What we know:
Number of strands: 22
Number of domains: 2
Helix content: 25-40%
Largest sheet: 7 strands, mixed
Amino acid sequence: MRAVIALFFALAAVVVVRLVIIQVVEHEHHETFADRTWAIETKGPRGAILDRNGFPLATSIDAWEVHVDTRLWSRSQFQPTDASRRLAELLRADESIVLSLAAQTAAAGGHDALIAYGLSGALGAQIHAEALHGVQVRKTSTRRYLEGSMAAPVIGLVGRDEQGLAGLEYQLDDLLGGEAGLLVQEVDGLGNPIPFGPRAELPYQQGSSVVLTIDRNLQWIAEATLQRAVEEWDALGGHIIMMDPRNGDILALASLPTYNPMTIDLDQPESMALLRSRAASDIYEPGSTMKVVTMAAAIDAGIVSPDTTFVDTGAVVIEDRTIKNFDLSYHGEQTMTQVLQRSLNTGSVWVVQQLGARTFYEYVYRFGFGESTQSGLPGEIGGVVTDSTDIRWSPAQLATNSFGQGIATTPLQMIQAYSTIARGGVPVRPRLVSAIITDEGVQHFEPKTGERVISRETAATLTWMMQAVVDGVLGHPAQVDGWAVAGKSGTSDVVEDGVYLENESLASFAGFAPADDPRVVVLVRIDRPQGELYGGIVAAPIFSELMSVVLPYLGVPPTAYVAEPSDWNTSPPSTTDQSQDEREPQRAHAASVDADDEDTSPVTYIEQESEAQVEGSGNE
């Protein structure tokens, strides 16, 4: 009996000693092999981004990633080993970089270090076959942008982890990326799955594909045209936006400078500035393109008609400021149509004074200024409108706001405003996504319209006046043979650090065609062109060039139409077949000047409006 007890205690002592050795002396060694279960996040292919015709602009292809279990490599304290040396050879990388990546992950408390990604199937299979200690190869996908830099400010790009960093890739990341799955499995000491070992998997959900409103061909035309214009004028950049006013579809959105998502180096600080969607996030003073909005408000409120006259003396004094016309000219008695044709700053000031601050800013907000268009681009802002309720406001600001100075908009806001006029006074939200494709089917998105801004009659009258600006001027550079055009140019001040720069401008033109049945609205803006300031000279010819190509592409054949300036020496045709709803919010019109009393001589000048000539403010 004593022998049995002695044997029992002896065996117990052996067990205790062995437990002490395993749990204390050899703790670190056995801890490495104790946890043989890996939980791995799995992700399916990212959804594709397609143009409106189904052409892929961004897609994902199969690729491989190389990971290292830092717990298995930590025993060597991340010193060179056969595994790290061979892995570096296969990756054609410096071994010190491989070891550093593993060490950084371990230092941060992680066990799974990503060493390389985007590998081809052949290289991934080779690394997997080598069965290197602690190295695991996983199937994944990598993003490809088939057209390089095309529409990069819209599409954006993804990072190394296949998560969106900019553009719609960022804005729609949850949708495009799908939902990750989880794979739990038992692995051996090399990190490789044990055949027939325990395994559980929560499957991933593949990302949905997105159909854009962008037309790949029109986008190419816009980008090529913008690139030529920027080079021709030695400009710093610019925008060309095409929008279908019927449904708000953005058919093309080109911005310079831009980037190629396949080659951009995000480690460079200057690269990050290229990622923002400038058309939605960068504000500017719109200049004389804003005069159309001012005139629309006054006509709709019944304050003026196209034939209403004022006397242009060439200057108007507001508080301590003297506002002059861009060319320091004066023209005597002028109609409201001539105010737009000659782009008279003094005329815009007179109009807004008759309209009043409260009513003017009501219409400014109705047109969508001061709030986001909700286009879907990340970082979109609402611009800056300082109205008469703001303590910083003054009557001089009302005057300059009337011709687009002291008010800040985005390019998307401006094209939305012109689209509102083109579609009869009801705004439509600019949109970039028309449908989403999932495993369950296709989800289409309907256009989103807002409350009526101006009456249908006001929109028709204003369109007639905007035609007078282009087709009513002999040889206007925005004219397009075969199509009637309505539009307005603008020349904006450039502001840096709160100071207006001399001899620098943002030259723009906004308009639509055909004027009687608008199919496309186009905004052209060239930033800081050299040798010329005016939108009527720099941007208007670009608009004409684009329309001559875009309209036939959209299935709008040319007609025998030829611009005749004399056609705009009479009053616009009246629109009488309106319902009461269509007339709202228009009020009774003031009496207009008799057409027989107006100047009927042919207009032979080219509008070259610029920023306000303001004395006493330090700006021109």
